[in-house]
Amino acid sequence: MKPEILSLQHRGEYLYAACGEAGFRVFDIAFTDNKAFSERVTTAPVSPLGQQFYVRTKYCTDVASPTTIAPDPTRVHKPENFEASVPLMYAFLYVTDLHEGLILVLVGTLLDGDPNNNFIKKDVVFNPNGILNGARSVTVFGKYAYICCDAGIVIVDIEDHKNLKVVNVLKEGEHVHHAHNVEFQFRYGFVCDEHGVKVIDVTDPTKPEFVAEVELDDVHNIYVARTYGYVSAGHHGLVILDLKNPKQPKIDQIFNANGCINDLHDVKLGINYASQFAYLADGHNGVHVVQLMSPQTPGNDGFSPRPTPQLISSFKLPHEGHALSLAEGVDRDRAIDEAGNQLAVFGRIGAKPLTLAEQQSLYLMPGTGVLPGQSPPLPFTVANPTRDYKTPDARQREIQLHEQIENWYGPSGVRKNSGKRTQ
């Protein structure tokens, strides 16, 4: 029947798929090598009570989960455990449709072990005045969904599924040009559009600011890992960006395995043992696996060694299939989201991650941030003095270095610089 699967999201024992005209579908991928029947991946009922693992939409384009782990917001919490509750927004998947906009599908019931409630449906359809027409992709950042659509990039507050609201729009043609996707890392977002990769400062997620751009055509997607961004750049292949300073991004290298990678649509990263791999959906060429780092990579024991890509395997899809999307693996070290919501159970009674206010106190100036009553976010900055080795006297060099620091911070440790405080 030639299904058109445009986006995949793996979570728990299920795979969620955006299937174009076929709408949104759920596949059971638990125990693919140990099922009691021959079909490894199935949508057939596994409960005698039946199930419905599909939602009809006009043209489903993308599906996103706020996290790749599978927290259960409906789980009962015992008071003696002093646990923080998982926000209800994590019980939903966020689906985009070209005509219907943003669709919320409640899938938390697939996690509760009850076979009587596995019937999914459209729980919320959100497209006020058609602002989300042409929705192509959605990315969840804290309690906000960034949706690429005909209007540009629309930012929607999804904290309360009964009261979704648009908080900002990065207008098409003014800020972005047919944006395909947005990915985030800490205080920065990376937008892929027809002009290349654009960097936005999302210290305040409701008021992003464009800070840099790397011009590049045929850009589809980006995966950010530490100080590098891995761009699926169509006929260019895999473009690796140096993002050590997000405000000054630059192309580090372009890898196409001597022309073997020339239709790249998606890239995801994963680590196996001591090696890092990139998994590539390379259109008509199928799927590739590229080793980025290994124990032999120079600086492999450091924080972010420069990748040394090497194509190690390929798989061409049967029946002339095209590889368009890959599901992201499980982020096992993520216990909190960008809004300060706790996602995972901690080992000690009463243990918890930092709240949003506590996080911001580590990297923003006092009194600034995104919480009510605060001034606009103003990150901490530090002096970067340099020794003048033209000064032959070592003691004098150190005095000059000390003077640079003192001039920067001032005697009180706080300096006013062009109206901005720096500590």
Summarize the structure.
The protein has 423 residues and is mainly β. Helices cover 6% and strands 33% of the residues.
Portion of residues in beta strands equals 25-35%
H/E element order: EEEEEEEEEEEEEEEEEEEEEEEEHHEE
CATH fold label of the largest domain: Methylamine Dehydrogenase, Chain H
Number of helices: 2
- Tell me the count of domains: 2
Parts with pLDDT < 50 across at least 5 consecutive residues: 416-423
Q: Residue-averaged pLDDT, rounded?
A: 91
Q: In CATH, what is the homologous superfamily of the largest domain?
A: YVTN repeat-like/Quinoprotein amine dehydrogenase
- C-alpha termini separation: 62 Å
Features:
globular, about 425 residues, mainly beta, disordered C terminus, 2 domains, Methylamine Dehydrogenase, Chain H, four-stranded antiparallel β-sheet, single chain
General description of the model:
This protein has 423 residues and is mainly beta. The protein has two domains: 7-320, Methylamine Dehydrogenase, Chain H; 356-422, no CATH class. It has helices spanning 356-363, 394-409, and strands spanning 7-11, 14-18, 24-28, 54-55, 60-64, 92-97, 101-106, 124-126, 137-141, 144-149, 152-157, 165-171, 181-185, 188-193, 196-201, 209-215, 221-225, 228-232, 238-242, 250-255, 266-272, 275-281, 287-293, 310-315, 415-417, 420-422. The strands form seven sheets. The protein has a four-stranded antiparallel beta sheet with strand order 1-2-3-4, with no helix packed on it. A four-stranded antiparallel beta sheet has the order 5-6-7-8, with no helix packed on it. The chain has a four-stranded antiparallel beta sheet with strand order 9-10-11-12, with no helix packed on it.
